[in-house]
Amino acid sequence: MGRNMKGTKETLKEAIRTYNDLREICSASREAALRSPNSPVAGKIFSTDKKIRKRDKRDIINEHFDSLQRKITEFCILDIVATFEKSVFRRIGNAYGEIKNVVEDGYEKRLSKREPIPFYIASSSFVKDREDIRNLSGVKKLLENKIPEDLFEKLTEIIEHRNWLSHGKRANVGKESGLRIDEMYDALNQIFDRI
Question: Do 91 and 195 meet the contact criterion of CB atoms below 8 Å apart?
Fold first, then answer.
């Protein structure tokens, strides 16, 4: 248990570290391009067939790096959620085996006492397995009313945001979240701790 959890926490931390590193690289590149709009760093941003005034170059540079910052954030959110999802499904597989054994052992103890046990022959079928929980929405259903409401709402919002991003930001698939990336990271860590 501790090994998987530590691996997940470390992987989530690594995703946040990568995000922060990429943001810093992007910021440093922006500053370099703004300091010297005719440098090779800035030159790659402009089309070569137009003469661009120095002030316009600054606007173009800022727009370019703002766009990069948004993309970096989006990629990191997808990375964090994918890491969380992978770890949760690993835990679901472990939980299924353990819960199935508990149910079977409990029923066998009752059977040895000659107690009537309805559906004994199908007892393990009452336990959900990986095939029953196919995605994060299935995990969300498992956690409903099992984690604090505010954490559940954040999970819902994170899943909606991930769906929105991964399906091309379409209005009818998920929706954009107001949570910052550090809030998403903290919420997923708290949820994983409770799992």
Answer: yes
**Tens digit of each residue's pLDDT (9 = 90 or more) over 83-139:** 998 888 787 766 666 666 666 666 666 667 777 677 665 566 666 656 556 678 778
Q: How far apart are CA 184 and CA 140, in angstroms?
A: 15
Cα–Cα distance for residue pair 119/190, rounded to 1 Å = 37
- Between CA 168 and CA 26, with CA 181 as vertex, the angle to 5 degrees is 80
SS3 136: helix
Q: What's the CA gap between 41 and 33, in Å, rounded?
A: 6
- Spatial contact of 81 and 179, defined as CB atoms under 8 Å apart: no
- Answer yes or no: are the C-beta atoms of 126 and 102 closer than 8 Å: no
Longest Cα separation, the chain = 91
Buried residues in 66-87 as b, exposed as e (16+ CB within 10 A)? eebeeebbbebbebbbebbbeb
Question: Do 177 and 158 contact (CB within 8 A), yes or no?
Answer: yes
CA distance 127 to 137: 18
Instruction: Supply angle C-alpha 72, 162, 142, rounded to 5.
Output: 140
